[in-house]
Amino acid sequence: MTFPRFSHFLAIDWSGAAGERHKGIALALADAAGGPPVLIDRGRGWSRADVLALLLEDLPPDTLVGLDLGMSLPFADCEGFFPGLTNSPPDARSLWAMVDDICADDPHLGASSFVDHPDLSTYFRRHGGREGERFRCDGAAHGRGRFRVTEHAQAAQGCKPYSNFNLIGAAQVGKSSLTGMRVLHRLEGALPVWPVDPLPETGSVLVEIYTSLAALDARRSAARSKIRTIVDLNRALGALASPPVAGDGPIDDHSSDALLAAVWLRDVANDPARWQPGGLTREIARTEGWTFGAL
After folding, report:
1. Cα-Cα end-to-end distance for the chain
2. Can you say how many angstroms the Cα of residue 220 is from the centroid of all Cα atoms in its chain?
3. Of 3, 45, 125, 193, which one's alpha carbon is 20 to 30 angstroms from that of 204?
4. Tell me, what DSSP letter sits at residue 193?
């Protein structure tokens, strides 16, 4: 792969919440020329369908898209996504198709039908203290549930990941991951998803991101990864050699996550090590995927 090769860097802070439009969805764009990142504001809150439409129809050329969610579920730890389930999908793309099919009647690309499915709910930790019998898989000692290989790599870098099978708590990523899988399924043939798809020589590509990794590279700790003032945001942007954004007041952490992540993508996209992490095998790529930047 020849670098540099991307002209634009789009970071998407995602949400798995119920409803159509979400304050938790924020999009920020940075360009290769090195200017400050900008929020993409369409005058109303983003819906998941809006984001899908942008990715399919309105993406700038040669864009590296970072989507803040888990693109798959743990597979390697128990030799399957849903051990004991007869029709457990064999790979990530089959999982995406399964989620989208089961949730076909859920509005706004939601995923409630999947986690409430009688054959699948036992694998999740849900609200009301409902921890499924298979949530931990072979009695995992910690209470955060099953991890993908990439989440172990995140933890080794100082992050505090949670299982994509966990659906409760402020740190949960399960709902956003499952709704995101519906989007990833609908992108097939239109936008490659690395590393499930190989990194193409040209054109745009989508990767999974974890905004805490961007914060760590911007010299913030995992405990201080959330930024709520423009002063703190500009300090973090400066650590990544980015010009500041305008203003000096408060900012919501969804917007700051997206703005910082867009600049971080620009900063690290040309590092070959980010595309060749040590734990990423061909089998892991096709089943669990990977978080861009996890080494």
Report:
1. 18
2. 20
3. 45
4. B
Matching residue, tokens 């070959």: 272
Based on its alpha-carbon atoms, the radius of gyration of the chain, rounded to whole angstroms, reads 18
Q: Give the Cα separation of 134 and 146 in Å (integer).
A: 10
CB atoms within 10 A of CB 203: 13
| Structure-token match 């990439």, residue found | 150
Given the DSSP bridges, would you call strands 46-47 and 21-22 parallel, antiparallel or unpaired? antiparallel
Q: Give residues with Cβ within 8 angstroms of 43, minimum separation 6.
A: none
Which tokens go with 216? 């760590």
d(CA 133, CA 141): 14
- DSSP secondary structure code for residue 31 in this structure: E
Mean pLDDT across 42-63:
94
- Cα–Cα distances (Å) from 173 to 13, 48, 67, in that order, read 12, 16, 12
Threshold 0.85, pTM exceeds: yes
Strand partners, 166: 125
Summarize pLDDT for 69-93 with one digit per residue, the tens: 999 999 999 999 999 999 999 999 9
Cβ neighbour number for residue 134 with a 10 Å cutoff:
19
Residue 245: DSSP 8-state = P
The tokens 């993409």 sit on which residue?
40
